[in-house]
Write a structure and sequence with these properties.
With about 325 residues, the chain is α/β, with parallel strands linked by helices. It folds into two domains: about 260 residues, P-loop containing nucleotide triphosphate hydrolases (Rossmann fold); about 60 residues, Orthogonal Bundle (Histone, subunit A), CATH 1.10.20.140. It has 14 helices and eight strands. It has a six-stranded parallel sheet, sandwiched between helices. The chain has a two-stranded parallel ribbon with strand order 1-6. Helix 12 packs antiparallel against helix 13. The longest helix is centred in the C-terminal third of the chain and has 26 residues.
Length: about 325
Protein backbone atom coordinates (compact mmCIF):
# COMPACT_ATOMS: atom_id res chain seq x y z
CA UNK A 1 0.00 0.00 0.00
CA UNK A 2 1.40 3.39 -0.98
CA UNK A 3 1.67 6.21 1.53
CA UNK A 4 -1.00 8.20 -0.32
CA UNK A 5 -3.66 5.51 0.04
CA UNK A 6 -6.03 5.54 3.05
CA UNK A 7 -5.57 2.76 5.54
CA UNK A 8 -8.23 0.04 5.49
CA UNK A 9 -8.56 -1.53 8.92
CA UNK A 10 -10.48 -4.57 7.62
CA UNK A 11 -8.82 -5.99 4.47
CA UNK A 12 -11.17 -7.10 1.70
CA UNK A 13 -10.13 -10.75 2.00
CA UNK A 14 -11.04 -10.72 5.70
CA UNK A 15 -14.45 -9.07 5.23
CA UNK A 16 -15.75 -10.32 1.88
CA UNK A 17 -19.38 -9.38 2.56
CA UNK A 18 -21.02 -6.64 4.60
CA UNK A 19 -24.64 -5.51 4.53
CA UNK A 20 -25.76 -2.15 5.92
CA UNK A 21 -29.47 -1.63 6.60
CA UNK A 22 -30.60 1.87 7.47
CA UNK A 23 -33.60 4.14 7.34
CA UNK A 24 -35.45 6.72 9.43
CA UNK A 25 -36.70 5.94 12.90
CA UNK A 26 -39.76 3.66 12.98
CA UNK A 27 -39.19 2.54 9.38
CA UNK A 28 -39.05 -1.16 10.28
CA UNK A 29 -35.36 -1.66 9.51
CA UNK A 30 -34.73 -3.63 12.71
CA UNK A 31 -37.44 -6.15 11.84
CA UNK A 32 -36.07 -6.54 8.32
CA UNK A 33 -32.50 -6.97 9.59
CA UNK A 34 -33.63 -9.69 12.01
CA UNK A 35 -35.52 -11.52 9.26
CA UNK A 36 -32.59 -11.38 6.85
CA UNK A 37 -30.17 -12.47 9.56
CA UNK A 38 -32.45 -15.39 10.51
CA UNK A 39 -32.84 -16.63 6.94
CA UNK A 40 -29.28 -16.08 5.73
CA UNK A 41 -27.01 -16.83 8.68
CA UNK A 42 -26.36 -13.22 9.61
CA UNK A 43 -25.58 -11.39 12.83
CA UNK A 44 -26.71 -7.83 13.54
CA UNK A 45 -24.47 -4.99 14.73
CA UNK A 46 -25.98 -1.81 16.15
CA UNK A 47 -25.47 1.50 14.32
CA UNK A 48 -27.72 3.65 16.52
CA UNK A 49 -25.83 5.98 18.85
CA UNK A 50 -28.55 5.97 21.53
CA UNK A 51 -29.16 2.22 21.51
CA UNK A 52 -25.57 1.65 22.61
CA UNK A 53 -26.47 2.80 26.14
CA UNK A 54 -28.10 0.53 28.73
CA UNK A 55 -30.06 3.09 30.76
CA UNK A 56 -33.26 3.61 28.73
CA UNK A 57 -33.79 0.58 26.45
CA UNK A 58 -37.52 1.22 25.97
CA UNK A 59 -37.18 4.88 24.98
CA UNK A 60 -34.30 4.13 22.62
CA UNK A 61 -36.30 1.21 21.18
CA UNK A 62 -33.66 -1.46 21.64
CA UNK A 63 -34.47 -4.87 20.11
CA UNK A 64 -37.16 -6.78 22.00
CA UNK A 65 -36.99 -10.47 22.91
CA UNK A 66 -38.67 -11.64 19.70
CA UNK A 67 -35.99 -9.99 17.56
CA UNK A 68 -33.18 -11.19 19.82
CA UNK A 69 -34.47 -14.74 19.40
CA UNK A 70 -34.28 -14.46 15.60
CA UNK A 71 -30.57 -13.66 15.37
CA UNK A 72 -27.53 -12.61 17.45
CA UNK A 73 -27.42 -8.86 18.16
CA UNK A 74 -24.25 -6.96 19.07
CA UNK A 75 -23.36 -3.54 20.56
CA UNK A 76 -26.83 -2.89 21.99
CA UNK A 77 -27.01 -1.62 25.57
CA UNK A 78 -23.34 -2.29 26.26
CA UNK A 79 -22.30 1.21 27.41
CA UNK A 80 -22.96 2.46 30.94
CA UNK A 81 -23.76 6.19 30.56
CA UNK A 82 -22.86 6.96 34.16
CA UNK A 83 -19.20 6.18 33.49
CA UNK A 84 -18.65 6.17 29.72
CA UNK A 85 -19.54 8.22 26.67
CA UNK A 86 -19.44 6.54 23.29
CA UNK A 87 -18.17 8.52 20.32
CA UNK A 88 -17.83 7.69 16.65
CA UNK A 89 -14.25 6.52 16.99
CA UNK A 90 -14.96 4.12 19.85
CA UNK A 91 -17.98 2.74 17.98
CA UNK A 92 -15.91 2.22 14.84
CA UNK A 93 -13.30 0.31 16.81
CA UNK A 94 -15.98 -1.90 18.33
CA UNK A 95 -17.88 -2.47 15.10
CA UNK A 96 -14.62 -3.35 13.34
CA UNK A 97 -13.95 -6.09 15.89
CA UNK A 98 -17.50 -7.42 15.58
CA UNK A 99 -17.36 -7.52 11.77
CA UNK A 100 -14.11 -9.47 11.96
CA UNK A 101 -15.47 -11.92 14.55
CA UNK A 102 -18.73 -12.54 12.65
CA UNK A 103 -16.92 -13.05 9.35
CA UNK A 104 -14.53 -15.48 11.04
CA UNK A 105 -17.59 -17.50 12.09
CA UNK A 106 -18.57 -17.58 8.39
CA UNK A 107 -21.69 -15.51 9.08
CA UNK A 108 -22.84 -12.32 7.35
CA UNK A 109 -22.32 -9.12 9.37
CA UNK A 110 -25.39 -6.87 9.09
CA UNK A 111 -24.88 -3.32 10.39
CA UNK A 112 -28.29 -1.84 11.21
CA UNK A 113 -29.19 1.61 12.51
CA UNK A 114 -30.11 5.15 11.64
CA UNK A 115 -27.24 7.28 12.99
CA UNK A 116 -26.04 9.01 9.84
CA UNK A 117 -22.68 10.09 11.25
CA UNK A 118 -21.87 6.54 12.32
CA UNK A 119 -22.75 5.09 8.93
CA UNK A 120 -20.97 7.81 6.97
CA UNK A 121 -17.83 7.26 9.05
CA UNK A 122 -18.01 3.49 8.58
CA UNK A 123 -18.40 3.78 4.81
CA UNK A 124 -16.10 6.73 4.10
CA UNK A 125 -13.72 6.69 7.07
CA UNK A 126 -12.67 9.32 9.62
CA UNK A 127 -9.76 11.61 10.30
CA UNK A 128 -7.40 10.40 13.06
CA UNK A 129 -8.39 12.89 15.76
CA UNK A 130 -6.83 11.84 19.09
CA UNK A 131 -9.06 10.73 21.95
CA UNK A 132 -10.26 13.65 24.06
CA UNK A 133 -9.57 13.32 27.83
CA UNK A 134 -12.78 12.75 29.76
CA UNK A 135 -12.26 15.72 32.08
CA UNK A 136 -12.11 18.07 29.10
CA UNK A 137 -15.24 16.55 27.57
CA UNK A 138 -17.12 16.89 30.85
CA UNK A 139 -15.96 20.46 31.40
CA UNK A 140 -17.13 21.61 27.95
CA UNK A 141 -20.46 19.81 28.32
CA UNK A 142 -21.09 21.40 31.71
CA UNK A 143 -20.31 24.82 30.27
CA UNK A 144 -22.69 24.15 27.38
CA UNK A 145 -25.46 23.32 29.86
CA UNK A 146 -24.89 26.43 32.01
CA UNK A 147 -23.73 29.01 29.44
CA UNK A 148 -25.50 27.88 26.28
CA UNK A 149 -24.32 27.45 22.66
CA UNK A 150 -24.13 31.16 21.78
CA UNK A 151 -21.58 31.90 24.52
CA UNK A 152 -19.38 28.97 23.54
CA UNK A 153 -19.72 29.79 19.85
CA UNK A 154 -18.44 33.29 20.66
CA UNK A 155 -15.45 31.77 22.47
CA UNK A 156 -14.80 29.46 19.52
CA UNK A 157 -14.89 32.50 17.21
CA UNK A 158 -12.07 34.12 19.16
CA UNK A 159 -9.97 30.94 19.17
CA UNK A 160 -10.66 29.66 15.65
CA UNK A 161 -12.68 32.07 13.51
CA UNK A 162 -12.60 29.81 10.45
CA UNK A 163 -13.99 26.88 12.41
CA UNK A 164 -16.70 28.94 14.11
CA UNK A 165 -17.79 30.44 10.81
CA UNK A 166 -18.81 26.98 9.58
CA UNK A 167 -21.07 26.33 12.58
CA UNK A 168 -24.45 27.69 13.54
CA UNK A 169 -24.41 29.49 16.93
CA UNK A 170 -27.28 27.15 17.90
CA UNK A 171 -25.51 23.89 17.04
CA UNK A 172 -24.52 22.81 20.54
CA UNK A 173 -23.20 19.37 19.53
CA UNK A 174 -20.77 20.59 16.86
CA UNK A 175 -19.67 23.60 18.92
CA UNK A 176 -18.91 21.27 21.84
CA UNK A 177 -16.93 18.95 19.59
CA UNK A 178 -14.96 21.80 17.98
CA UNK A 179 -14.03 23.30 21.36
CA UNK A 180 -13.00 20.04 23.00
CA UNK A 181 -10.76 19.11 20.05
CA UNK A 182 -9.20 22.57 19.99
CA UNK A 183 -8.55 22.64 23.74
CA UNK A 184 -7.26 19.05 23.95
CA UNK A 185 -5.05 19.04 20.84
CA UNK A 186 -4.29 22.75 20.34
CA UNK A 187 -5.32 22.26 16.71
CA UNK A 188 -8.69 23.17 15.15
CA UNK A 189 -10.90 20.32 14.00
CA UNK A 190 -10.59 21.51 10.40
CA UNK A 191 -6.83 20.91 10.53
CA UNK A 192 -7.35 17.33 11.70
CA UNK A 193 -9.91 16.76 8.97
CA UNK A 194 -7.30 17.54 6.34
CA UNK A 195 -5.21 14.57 7.43
CA UNK A 196 -5.41 11.22 5.59
CA UNK A 197 -8.64 9.39 6.35
CA UNK A 198 -8.73 6.04 8.14
CA UNK A 199 -11.02 3.55 6.37
CA UNK A 200 -12.67 0.79 8.38
CA UNK A 201 -14.27 -1.32 5.62
CA UNK A 202 -13.85 -2.03 1.93
CA UNK A 203 -16.79 -0.20 0.24
CA UNK A 204 -16.55 -2.50 -2.78
CA UNK A 205 -17.57 -5.45 -0.63
CA UNK A 206 -20.43 -3.59 1.04
CA UNK A 207 -24.06 -3.12 0.06
CA UNK A 208 -26.36 -0.54 1.63
CA UNK A 209 -30.11 -1.12 1.87
CA UNK A 210 -32.28 1.91 2.65
CA UNK A 211 -35.74 1.35 4.14
CA UNK A 212 -37.82 4.39 3.19
CA UNK A 213 -41.55 3.77 3.69
CA UNK A 214 -44.29 5.93 2.23
CA UNK A 215 -44.63 9.07 4.40
CA UNK A 216 -48.20 8.74 5.66
CA UNK A 217 -47.86 5.10 6.68
CA UNK A 218 -44.53 5.94 8.31
CA UNK A 219 -46.11 8.76 10.36
CA UNK A 220 -48.69 6.31 11.68
CA UNK A 221 -45.90 3.91 12.64
CA UNK A 222 -44.29 6.69 14.70
CA UNK A 223 -47.49 7.14 16.71
CA UNK A 224 -47.99 3.42 17.21
CA UNK A 225 -44.41 3.04 18.41
CA UNK A 226 -44.77 5.72 21.08
CA UNK A 227 -48.01 4.23 22.46
CA UNK A 228 -46.39 0.77 22.51
CA UNK A 229 -43.43 2.15 24.46
CA UNK A 230 -45.75 3.52 27.14
CA UNK A 231 -47.46 0.13 27.45
CA UNK A 232 -44.06 -1.54 27.83
CA UNK A 233 -43.20 0.55 30.91
CA UNK A 234 -41.66 3.72 29.49
CA UNK A 235 -42.92 5.93 32.33
CA UNK A 236 -41.37 3.71 34.98
CA UNK A 237 -38.10 3.69 33.03
CA UNK A 238 -37.92 7.50 32.98
CA UNK A 239 -38.95 7.76 36.64
CA UNK A 240 -35.94 5.61 37.49
CA UNK A 241 -33.29 7.73 35.73
CA UNK A 242 -34.56 11.30 35.32
CA UNK A 243 -32.82 12.60 38.45
CA UNK A 244 -29.48 10.88 37.86
CA UNK A 245 -26.55 13.31 38.13
CA UNK A 246 -24.80 11.83 35.08
CA UNK A 247 -27.72 12.48 32.74
CA UNK A 248 -26.97 16.14 31.79
CA UNK A 249 -23.43 15.12 30.75
CA UNK A 250 -24.55 12.14 28.70
CA UNK A 251 -25.65 12.16 25.05
CA UNK A 252 -28.76 10.40 26.33
CA UNK A 253 -30.12 13.71 27.57
CA UNK A 254 -30.89 14.44 23.90
CA UNK A 255 -32.83 11.21 23.37
CA UNK A 256 -36.09 11.82 21.55
CA UNK A 257 -38.90 11.94 24.12
CA UNK A 258 -36.81 12.30 27.25
CA UNK A 259 -37.51 16.02 27.87
CA UNK A 260 -41.33 15.81 27.64
CA UNK A 261 -41.38 12.67 29.77
CA UNK A 262 -39.32 14.35 32.49
CA UNK A 263 -41.67 17.33 32.29
CA UNK A 264 -44.57 14.91 32.82
CA UNK A 265 -42.93 13.26 35.85
CA UNK A 266 -42.45 16.74 37.32
CA UNK A 267 -46.13 17.57 36.85
CA UNK A 268 -45.49 20.30 34.29
CA UNK A 269 -47.48 18.74 31.45
CA UNK A 270 -50.08 16.00 31.08
CA UNK A 271 -49.34 12.50 29.78
CA UNK A 272 -51.34 13.28 26.64
CA UNK A 273 -49.26 16.40 26.01
CA UNK A 274 -46.05 14.47 26.56
CA UNK A 275 -47.19 11.71 24.20
CA UNK A 276 -48.11 14.15 21.42
CA UNK A 277 -44.79 15.95 21.89
CA UNK A 278 -42.85 12.69 21.55
CA UNK A 279 -44.74 11.72 18.41
CA UNK A 280 -44.12 15.16 16.92
CA UNK A 281 -40.40 15.10 17.79
CA UNK A 282 -40.06 11.55 16.45
CA UNK A 283 -41.59 12.55 13.12
CA UNK A 284 -39.47 15.69 12.93
CA UNK A 285 -36.29 13.71 13.62
CA UNK A 286 -37.32 11.10 11.07
CA UNK A 287 -37.92 13.81 8.49
CA UNK A 288 -34.36 15.07 8.99
CA UNK A 289 -33.10 11.51 8.64
CA UNK A 290 -35.01 11.01 5.39
CA UNK A 291 -33.51 14.20 3.98
CA UNK A 292 -30.00 13.17 5.05
CA UNK A 293 -30.30 9.68 3.57
CA UNK A 294 -31.58 11.06 0.27
CA UNK A 295 -28.73 13.55 -0.05
CA UNK A 296 -25.78 11.96 1.75
CA UNK A 297 -26.26 8.23 1.22
CA UNK A 298 -25.94 6.29 -2.01
CA UNK A 299 -27.88 3.09 -1.26
CA UNK A 300 -27.66 0.15 -3.61
CA UNK A 301 -31.25 -0.89 -2.84
CA UNK A 302 -34.25 1.13 -1.60
CA UNK A 303 -37.32 -0.48 -0.04
CA UNK A 304 -40.31 1.85 -0.16
CA UNK A 305 -42.79 -0.74 1.10
CA UNK A 306 -43.19 -1.52 4.77
CA UNK A 307 -40.71 -4.35 5.56
CA UNK A 308 -43.52 -6.24 7.31
CA UNK A 309 -45.35 -6.46 3.96
CA UNK A 310 -42.45 -8.13 2.18
CA UNK A 311 -43.17 -11.76 1.39
CA UNK A 312 -40.62 -14.46 2.25
CA UNK A 313 -39.99 -15.05 -1.44
CA UNK A 314 -39.30 -11.36 -2.04
CA UNK A 315 -36.92 -11.26 0.92
CA UNK A 316 -35.03 -14.25 -0.48
CA UNK A 317 -34.77 -12.58 -3.91
CA UNK A 318 -33.62 -9.34 -2.28
CA UNK A 319 -30.87 -11.01 -0.26
CA UNK A 320 -29.79 -13.11 -3.23
CA UNK A 321 -29.44 -9.96 -5.32
CA UNK A 322 -27.43 -8.23 -2.59
CA UNK A 323 -25.06 -11.15 -2.08
CA UNK A 324 -24.52 -11.62 -5.82
CA UNK A 325 -23.69 -7.92 -6.16
CA UNK A 326 -21.20 -8.08 -3.29
CA UNK A 327 -19.58 -11.24 -4.62
CA UNK A 328 -19.35 -9.71 -8.10
CA UNK A 329 -17.61 -6.62 -6.69
CA UNK A 330 -15.19 -8.78 -4.74
CA UNK A 331 -14.33 -10.85 -7.81
CA UNK A 332 -13.75 -7.79 -10.01
CA UNK A 333 -11.69 -5.88 -7.42
CA UNK A 334 -7.91 -5.99 -7.91
Amino acid sequence: MSSTEPETLIPSHVCPRLLIITGPTASGKSDLAAELAFQFQGEIINADSMQAYNAIPILTNQPHDNLLARAPHHLFGYVNPSSHIQNVKSWLNNVTKKIFQITKRQKIPIVCGGSGLYLHSLIHGISPVPDIPQHIRNAIRLRMIHEGPHALHHELSSLSPACAQKLSPCDSSRITRALEVLIATEKPLSQWQQIKTLHFINPQNTRTLLVLPEKESWKKRCGIRVHNMIQLGLLEEIEHIHSETWLPLSPLHKAIGLAPLIAYTQGKISLEEATMKIIHDTQRYGKRQRTWFQHQLSPHTVISDSPSKLQTQNIALLMDEILRAINSSQTSSP
